[in-house]
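Give me the fold.
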Amino acid sequence: MTNKELVLEFIKEVFNAHDLSKLDEYMHDDYMQHSVEVADGKEGFRRFAEGFFTMEPYMDVKQVFESDDTVAVFFKCSFKNGHSAKVVDMYRIRDGKLAEHWDVVQHITPDDAVNNGRGSF
């Protein structure tokens, strides 16, 4: 499995299925986190995701880029309350599992298409 395929499967089987039982397949125990609201380690991610999943997020992947041991994913994240965000997640892969994570999140508002008429995607 390529690094790109690994990240896409992680999104599908963990994030979109809201299934934390598969974390051992995808993530190192010492997973390093650069999101300020998420603690380091697999267990830090688990604690974050348990709360995050209550909002029933769905990630609609728009673009994926792979370079050496790093994969970047650009996606729309939609929530059951009608809110959404555009997100770029970057993962460093080590020995076939997620080892490190960075993200950039921008909330989408109804006014996003006003300036250029193209919207967020």
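DSSP finds three helices and five strands in the chain.
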